[in-house]
Write the structure tokens for this entry.
Amino acid sequence: MQKWEYLLVDANMYPFGNKLISLYVNGEEQREWKQGFLHLFINELGDEGWELVAVRHDSKYDQNSLIFKRPKVVKNLRNMPDYSAVETATTQTKEIPAVETATTQTKSTSVD
């Protein structure tokens, strides 16, 4: 089953403009976006795989609340097999075929 992660954005805009007064992502202020443009911030989120799924506008305070989501990468560490032994075996088998090939060629030339 698909799992999702969510991002909550609160954006206060100047009236009659598109510049940001403040921007909060999951409750943390994003000071580098102060005086920035909301549409550019949203485009950056889109580039990172976030999809805008809901918008709420409060006209009294000129505040926008946006909700984004993207597929969550689920890491189930408890059921993950231990691949450390496989990696060691793979590293060892990479060295062995070169030796076996040389031995096989020597045997075939000595048989003729």
Observations:
- The chain has two helices and five strands.
- Strands lie at 4-13, 20-25, 28-29, 51-58, 63-71.
